[in-house]
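Model it.
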Amino acid sequence: MVLEQLTVLLVDRFGCDPEDVTMAASFDELNITDDERYELAAVLSELYLGTPIDDFPPFDTVEDLVGYIEDQMG
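Modeled.
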């Protein structure tokens, strides 16, 4: 669920190839900047948690971000 929404965001907002968006993909490989990573995390937290989260742990891969959001969902 989270991976699918993240893929849509990466493709629509940042022009990533959907085939490149895998759990193992790093945001560096996808050419996503630190600011864009924060934006993605904020959007996903609003979608799935109903509130933005201000402090995110560092995350380097799609799996890191998806795991973080899913952990926050409980």
